[in-house]
Queue: 2 jobs
Job 1
Amino acid sequence: MKFFADTADTGEIRELAATGLLDGVTTNPSLIKKSGRKLFEVLEEICTIVDGPVSAETVALDYETMLKEGQKLSKISKNIAIKVPMTVAGLKTCKALRADRIMVNVTLCFSATQALLAAKAGATYISPFVGRLDDVSEDGMELIGDIRLIYDNYNFQTQILVASIRNPLHVLEAARIGADVATIPAAIMKQLFKHPLTDKGLEAFLKDWKKTGESIL
Ligand code: G3P
């Protein structure tokens, strides 16, 4: 499963990229606002940090303007994926951008029928928001399972990019189901490394090693 960082904070992205385990980045208008930086400036910098896909979101609601925005954003770098909303205009834009071999990430997906439409539109990625479904007492991970089943039934090549991840169990369940990508906030990605028994075991090893009086180097 690929790990993308769900952030526009270049400091967080650099830290995660240094682990060698970061496969891409997703941004959205809220994350850009949170960064406090200009859209094109921060996207250009992110594209110099990671080679993998970097999602940049359109903000128009009509097809013609959304397409122009997507075409302009795609010129930032070859690894830019254009994020479009799960709407009629969004899927029309998806088809047009894909015809030009531009990666497209269809976002704000909350149902399996939406995911089916996005795959038919040739989306590179579909972004179901599991945390926001959980927030309204729907089972976000059940949606991921439904999409996985449907995509496998028809051999759709659209990649399931699990978004709105709120805890490590979302990542675990996404991997169990066979999602292609998890886009993870930096703090949660760091949590994936941690286990108290690892810390305890390491401390015990080093305490015993110190008693040997030996050194490796
Ligand atoms: O990529 C979408 C993600 O940023 C949304 O997360 O926590 O605002 O639902 P959240």
Job 2
Amino acid sequence: MPDQYAVIGNPVAHSRSPLIHEAFARQTGVDLEYRTLLAPTDGFTATANEFRAGGGRGLNVTLPFKGEAFRYAAFLSERASAAQAVNTLKFERGVIFGDNTDGAGLVNDLTKNLVRALSGQRILLLGAGGAARGVIDPLLQQQPLQLTLANRTPDKAQSLARSFGGAIEAGDYDALAGRQFDVIINATSASLAGKLPPLPPGVFAPGALAYDMMYGKGETPFLAFARNEGVAQLADGLGMLVEQAAESFFVWRGLRPDGAAVLKQLRQMQNA
Ligand code: NDP
């Protein structure tokens, strides 16, 4: 029987992870099966246990279970500990290993696919939820000139910044007036609701990149705002999705698939 993998979530039927991992398996010649696994909102542990008992080798974890997966893992990578969330579980010789590949996925998409070096850049990260927390450490490792967090509820951003030892500054959106950034990443869920985080005009520096972690819903209000502000480089989160999957595949199989090729296929499907 091929090695079994799945993405666990609720809802999960819409997930593109099976498509992505099947493409990686074809690329690398690995024999695996990858499916979606719907868990009841109060049934993450039971569903993951059952999958493991059936010989499952690994899980990707999506909403709303990344925190539960963090507690489920017996061993954690450094980046999962920093994120306090797990999106990749590996089951090997009776051990549950938890990792978080979201940050690496974002950084690889920015630096490789979008060819944007982050070192020396002024980066603004919008939001202070799970997605923002997961990408802070990998962004800091790129040695930006500064990393600033803005959140609707500033206390949350400030407490998140403190947990990273003061390497970042944090506040509300009003504090951004009169300032400019080279890379602005929308890690809020505002786009899901068709809303724009309250950014002041003029916040994009000349030559800036606007990145929305959301994908698959056309141009988001954030990207539309950036376009109106004259930003030329706009990106959605599809590349992050593919690159976090490539990193998970590497964690499971020790092989690095070509994320860019799969991203190209997904874009073609999206535009067809
Ligand atoms: P959370 O629910 O943990 O956090 C939501 C954040 O959005 C909070 O900071 C919240 O602010 C803020 N927010 C919500 N609505 C608004 C608004 N109208 N204006 C300003 N801020 C707002 O969500 P996650 O962090 O888990 O996910 C965020 C996004 O990232 C989602 O769209 C998700 O799809 C995407 N994502 C994409 C991935 C990819 O691979 N491309 C991977 C992971 C996530 P407050 O604290 O004030 O409530």
